[in-house]
Amino acid sequence: MDTITVRAVIDFETKPKAPLTRMMNERLERFAAELHTYLDLALAGDQNFGELAVYISYNSNYAVRWTILHQVPERISDLVAQKCAGLGFIAWKNVDLYRFK
């Protein structure tokens, strides 16, 4: 089964009621939905990639970063990298999702 998941990783330790935090979290959710839609359309005819899971989040400088969680064919990771670079996202260098702060 081929599935595509794009998930926004939101920092829940910040004050959730702060207007700026709420706006940034909504923005990140919108980015995730748009990326998911793009990948669904771009990979509609490709049935050989297995599972594609992309996480996006903010780094400490509030830039949007991305990472692919599972091994996927190089052409798929290149497609994701090109789209994310085009959106101004940066690669998530140090993936430690369990210690996200």
Blueprint of the fold:
Blueprint: E1 3-8, H1 19-42, E2 51-58, E3 64-68, H2 74-86, E4 90-91
Parallel strand pairs: 1-2, 3-4
Antiparallel strand pairs: 2-3
Note down, in words, how this protein is organized.
This protein is of the alpha/beta class and 101 residues long. The protein has one domain (3-99). Helix content is 37%, strand content 21%. It is built from two helices and four strands; from the N terminus they run E-H-E-E-H-E. The protein has helices at 19-42, 74-86, and strands at 3-8, 51-58, 64-68, 90-91. Strands 1-2-3-4 form a four-stranded mixed β-sheet. Strand 2 and strand 3 (64-68) form a beta hairpin. The relative contact order is 0.21.
Number of domains: 1
Biggest pleated-sheet summary: 4 strands, mixed
List the uncertain runs.
none
Mean pLDDT equals 84
Helix/strand structural class? alpha/beta
The number of helical elements comes to 2
Described by the principal axes of the CA atoms, the overall outline is elongated
Rg (C-alpha, Å): 14 Å
Q: Total number of β-strand segments?
A: 4
Strand order of the largest sheet: 1-2-3-4
Q: Give the CA-CA distance, first to last residue.
A: 33 Å
Order of helices and strands: EHEEHE
Helix content: 25-40%
DSSP strand content: 15-25%
